[in-house]
Amino acid sequence: MGHHAAAGKQVFAFDFDGTLCDGLNECLLVTWNGYHQLGLEAFGDEGLRNIPEAFAARFSHLRNFSKHLGHFAVALLTESPVETQEQFDRVYEAMDEDQVYDFMTRVTQYRHAARSAFQNEWLAYHAFYPGVTRFLRSSSEPLYVVTAKDAESVQAIFTANNIEIPQHRIFGEQRAKVGALDTIAGQENIDKSQLFFFDDNVFNAIEARRAGYSAYWAGWGYSTQAHYELAARAGMNPMSLDRFVMGGFEECPSYSCTA
Fold this sequence. Notes:
Rossmann fold, disordered C terminus, single chain, six-stranded parallel β-sheet, 48% helix, 8 strands, alpha/beta
């Protein structure tokens, strides 16, 4: 890279859930049904209504702190109150690793089975945020996805919505995202500053920014008041969905992290 990097080129990388697409109810369904090993007939609106209200509320709240599938186990396997990211991380770290692995295995298998058996219903539980599909279809720059979701699911959702992003540009099941960004920057032969990364998880955005990438916090996704306070301390302002889909972020230094 360095002085051999392609000057002027811009490449975009996006998180998926909470940044491009809202899949909260799908996550809720596969978590509850998969863990409890319910049949596929429970995947649907009726199954959603049958999920205990208290669990649905807890899951929705804890989704704001979750970075990957394993984190969804916190809502099911613990009853600890969580109001901050630090509390959430402590609860997760204290969980039994085998239990979390078993949870992830069950939920992943259920998700794949539901996607296969009820493709249209499964796809319908993933709604792109307003303006995002148009933005993705019209972009002339190389687009990548760096997500904790599995790449097959992301590809299926893109295909159903006539969005063409090649499979090799979808980095799925990523827990630490900077490694994937390093790979992308190398493949595209660009300096880190030429890679624009968007994530609704403020920690991922700050980490990418500190690694030298042009990273932005997607303020329309999953977050809490505590995340806004942490972002303010780090100099990372939330970007609005309107500005994102208009593509006006390059000229907006106030939306990047100065830490």
